[in-house]
């Protein structure tokens, strides 16, 4: 099987550029961008059939308090939202709230997706709110570290409470309008947390690929990556993960053996990765390319686990003779550079620091600095490679990952465990005491390790749907003929829960 340039185009687009390490903590923004393209094609199909939808998306701005918890502060920021009234059966139809996460939202969030399909069925008003300090909902003061002090999940939930009141007044809503929240990834966590903290506002919540447990050392991310590369049902094999491990061991041995100049030439690095920090950045970027494929396995048009393993196990038609695993990894990087038209690969730790210290760059929609700040102050999520399950380099340590918190935001490393512990105490981690929350996760998605994947107890009445062979937020996309049977079944389960919640809410109102 030949891994064509055209098949890699979307995956390259998701990464934006492969020259920077730490790609994985920015990947959800890239995933959303790629899925926007698919959703827009879906909308174009509607328009060609005489059903234009774009005009039904209205955007607006609500001015929110920068600090909801300090009454002495009066400064505000503009927060963007979108509304789709097309399907709403007013005045008593339900409200479907789409919660933005660590990326910009767009009109697509109220025009396409599984929640929109359900809104059409139930006559719901669809609203979407962008997360503070992402996209166009920026702090007027900028993104200096002192200004990022107002960036937190707690403030984001307070934004949602205010937005709920704003929409209720604007559309003259009452207790007859049942609210259901939806979100994916971090937005999925917010959906679950909103239901837990403010159950009187949101009757039910769908949390897709939601990492509700904060974790400082998220080593199990790469454990799932390794297991997925071995999974024959999605195109993996024991030889695949073995060859990946062999390739990284060879790169690490060459670097540690003083051959960094040759490694730099092989991977077309812009500068020789001479320092230990630069070598870690190079290895991080190489690992991110593999891990990204696993997380995005069933994204249409992207590289699959099967295609990656075909290349890494020397089965690709482009190989006329046996090659070393090291050379196959070089070839993989060459393909990415060719598609992206990159003359060379950056592997400089200082360049990474410059990116994260840039307080103006994110004004154009990027979110690296903001998300890393939340990782350092709330969630951790540092994807390390220090245990035996990781197929990459053992040089990717927790210490090397968390050093950036100090170097960029002046947050001491010894404070990070306390930040993560507080988040789990505040929200409940993977054992939250909330009801009517549906947690949806994919088997191939490494983020399921930090989500709820089994049905709850009498204390936690949440329910879980686990989708065999599915990747990150796969259930949130509109239905497609190429969907697997397990994905179709999962969507049916989501639809059943939402329908049940709406019926139960109506019954409770009638009995009140």
What's the topology here?
Elements: H1 5-15, H2 27-48, E1 57-65, E2 76-84, E3 95-99, H3 108-111, H4 114-122, E4 125-129, H5 153-170, E5 179-184, H6 186-197, E6 204-208, E7 215-217, H7 220-230, H8 238-256, H9 260-266, H10 276-295, H11 305-312, H12 325-340, H13 349-357, H14 368-379, E8 380-382, H15 398-409, H16 416-427, E9 435-442, E10 461-467, H17 485-511
Parallel strand pairs: 3-4, 3-5, 5-6, 6-9, 7-8, 9-10
Antiparallel strand pairs: 1-2, 2-4
List low-confidence stretches.
1-28
Helix/strand order: HHEEEHHEHEHEEHHHHHHHHEHHEEH
Q: Oligomerization state of this entry? A: single chain
Mean pLDDT: 87
Describe the 3D structure.
The chain has 512 residues and is an alpha/beta fold. The chain is built from 17 helices and 10 strands. The strands form 2 sheets. Strands 1-2-4-3-5-6-9-10 form an 8-stranded mixed β-sheet, with helices on both faces. The longest helix is centred in the C-terminal third of the chain and has 27 residues, at 485-511. The protein is globular. The chain starts with a helix and ends with a helix.
């Amino acid at each position: 099987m030949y891994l064509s340039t055209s098949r890699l185009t979307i995956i390259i687009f998701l990464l934006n550029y492969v020259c920077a390490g730490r790609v994985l903590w920015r990947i959800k923004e890239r995933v959303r961008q790629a899925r926007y393209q698919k959703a827009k094609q879906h909308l174009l199909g509607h328009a060609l059939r005489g059903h234009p939808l774009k005009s039904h998306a209205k955007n607006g701005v609500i001015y929110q308090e920068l600090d909801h918890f300090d009454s002495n502060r009066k400064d505000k920021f503009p927060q963007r939202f979108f509304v789709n009234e097309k399907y709403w059966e007013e005045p008593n139809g339900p409200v479907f709230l789409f919660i933005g996460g660590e990326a910009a939202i767009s009109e697509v969030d109220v025009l396409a997706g599984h929640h929109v399909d359900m809104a059409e069925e139930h006559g719901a008003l669809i609203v979407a709110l962008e997360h503070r300090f992402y996209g166009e909902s920026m702090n007027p003061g900028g993104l200096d570290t002192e200004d990022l002090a107002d960036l937190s999940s707690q403030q984001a939930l307070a934004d949602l409470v205010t937005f709920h009141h704003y929409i209720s007044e604007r559309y003259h809503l009452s207790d007859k309008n049942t609210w259901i929240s939806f979100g994916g990834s971090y937005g999925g966590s917010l959906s679950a947390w909103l239901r837990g903290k403010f159950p009187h506002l949101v009757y039910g919540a769908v949390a897709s690929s939601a990492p509700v447990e904060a974790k400082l050392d998220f080593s199990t991310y790469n454990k799932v990556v390794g297991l997925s590369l071995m999974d024959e049902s999605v195109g993996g094999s024991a030889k695949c993960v073995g060859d990946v491990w062999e390739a990284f061991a060879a790169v690490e041995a060459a670097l540690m053996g003083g051959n960094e100049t040759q490694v730099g030439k092989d991977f077309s690095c812009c500068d020789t990765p001479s320092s230990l920090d630069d070598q870690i950045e190079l290895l991080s970027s190489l690992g991110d390319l593999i891990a990204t494929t696993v997380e995005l396995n069933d994204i249409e048009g992207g590289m699959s686990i099967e295609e990656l393993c075909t290349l890494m196990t020397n089965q690709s038609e482009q190989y006329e003779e046996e090659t070393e695993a090291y050379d196959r990894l070089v070839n993989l990087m060459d393909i990415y550079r060719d598609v992206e038209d990159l003359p060379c690969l950056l592997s400089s730790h200082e360049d990474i620091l410059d990116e994260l210290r840039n307080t103006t760059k994110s004004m154009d929609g990027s979110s690296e600095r903001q998300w890393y700040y939340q990782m350092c102050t709330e969630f951790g999520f540092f994807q390390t490679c220090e245990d035996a399950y990781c197929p990459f380099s053992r040089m990717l340590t927790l210490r090397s990952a968390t050093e950036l918190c100090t170097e960029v935001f002046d947050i001491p490393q010894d404070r990070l465990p306390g930040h993560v512990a507080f988040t789990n105490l505040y929200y409940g981690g993977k054992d939250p005491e909330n009801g009517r929350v549906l947690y949806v996760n994919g088997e191939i998605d490494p983020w399921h390790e930090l989500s709820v994947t089994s049905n709850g107890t009498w204390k936690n009445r949440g329910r879980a749907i686990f989708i065999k062979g599915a990747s990150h937020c796969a259930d949130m996309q509109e239905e497609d003929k190429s969907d697997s049977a397990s994905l179709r079944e999962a969507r049916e389960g989501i639809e059943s829960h939402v329908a049940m919640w709406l019926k139960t809410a109506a019954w409770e109102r009638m009995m009140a």
